[in-house]
Amino acid sequence: MKNSKKMNSFRERNIVLALVLILLLSILLGALTRKEVQREKYYLWQLAQSEGLNIAFSIEAIGPRLVLNQNILKEILILLKKEGVNYIDICTGNGKILLSTEEERRNTYVNLKNPGKVNYLTVQDKKGERILQVIKPFQWDIDKQLTIWDILPVRNSYLVVGVNLESYYQRLSQIRSRIIFNYGIIMALVLFGIYVVYKLQENYIIKKTLNEMKDYTTTLLETMDNAVISIDKNGLIKTFNRKSEEIFLKTRKEVLNKNCQDVLDIKIDNMCLLRKAILEKRNVSREIILKENGFSRKILDISTSFLNNESGEMVGLVAVIRDVTEIKSLNEEVARNNRLASLGKLSAGIAHEIRNPLSSIRGLAQFIGNSFKKDDARREDLDTIIQEVDRLNHLIVQVLDFAKIRKLNITHFSINQLIKKTVELLKIESNNKKIKFHLSLSEEIPNIYADENQIRQILLNIIVNSVQAINFQGDIFVTSEVIQYREKSGVKIMIEDNGTGIPESDIPKVFDPFFTKKETGTGLGLSIVYKLVENHQGEVKIESKEGSGTKFTIILPQKGVK
Predict the structure, then answer these.
(1) Which of 172, 222, 229, 272 is deepest in the core (most CB within 10 A)?
(2) Strand locations in 101-201, DSSP E?
(3) Phi and psi dihedrals of 6, rounded to 5?
(4) Model confidence at 154: pLDDT above 60
(5) pTM score
């Protein structure tokens, strides 16, 4: 009996304790529920207000000139009307509706409680649905060109946006039902709370990890020495890293979310290479020449790969682009040097072998010529032979001069003065053409250490080449400036003409010995230029476009300053 009383007493205490706990938890949950319902109600109310205001601002941004045209305005109002918005009105300062998306609302009145301010009114329509009326006065900058009669209808007008609240109240009712339902499953609610906490923590960790990965990926892309460009399946650019800006000379602002066809000049058959790969669903791996303003160009190595989503559907493309211009130039330079070395040895050997027979031919022709009388017609033929032998000897001297290693006679002189003297000399020789010389020589260039005769020959050969490229009338521009060359001070000389130019296919061969398209000439002039610049440990480059002219760039190390 005592044990039974103790058990009953224990159970009673547990029941009381349980009831107290349930009561406390119910009160706590009730308070939380009320607070949450109020918060959701406030949030939904703000959302409805924001919906109406956004539409109002959109119409307001159109401007009074279109709003004054009722036909256009009505079309705009209907266009902006969407699901959840019952009607859009324009009313006068006294609340009379002038124009509406619903014909039956015209000439009715709207209650304006706070004239001149934004009004929020809850009303019911004829179907009994609750409507939030967002009533906003117009804030337009009236165009001065509009007449006073045009301005009067909209000067004190209001825009009325009727937002249907039924879906908001329905959502609020669902939230309330869900919370009340949770009263019956307190333990489940606790477990659900733990689950929510866990999910929030998990989402936080995932979000943090994703942000770290995003930052890492962004840093990686920005530090890459290759251009990385990604586009979506519509051809819009989504990724454009720092190296891409350097190669294409465009900023991210200029290209992001723009069609690659419009902003990237990497085209095949007048279509952007990346867009072509998307349409043909075929990856690209090739080199392409990017032509820029003037004569400059870049050689780009492009490789692409498709971007697929989880279901394997292609959603875009990423391209890795390398600027291989310098590598190609170095390869061409190495190949050219090898060709020059081989041709130099071969030319020297052939020249020595030809020189001796030519001397014999010339001597024999002179001997035979002396045996004829002065009025003998055969003497003219022998004179022609002697002249042609002399011409061949002159050519052989040039070949030997090209083949032999020249020892530099280093002196200290003004490169600007040398340019001026060379140009003055060529002005006299080109007086049968209307050529204007334009000099732009930097006064900051000090005297340089170099072989003055060889530098003069370099300038003469190139400027003569420019003179010959101009048919009758044209311009030759000569500029000089100080630059940093191989981490030391150097001089850059640019000689540019607007002559006939050189075909793109011939540009890699212009410095090769004996390459010429002229009817007269040996094709050694530019080869000698290349070799003399190389002797000075400098560089010479050519840029040309057929029909637009040619530009030579000579870079010489300064060697020292007085």
Answers:
(1) 229
(2) 119-124, 130-137, 158-164
(3) -65, -45
(4) no
(5) 0.43
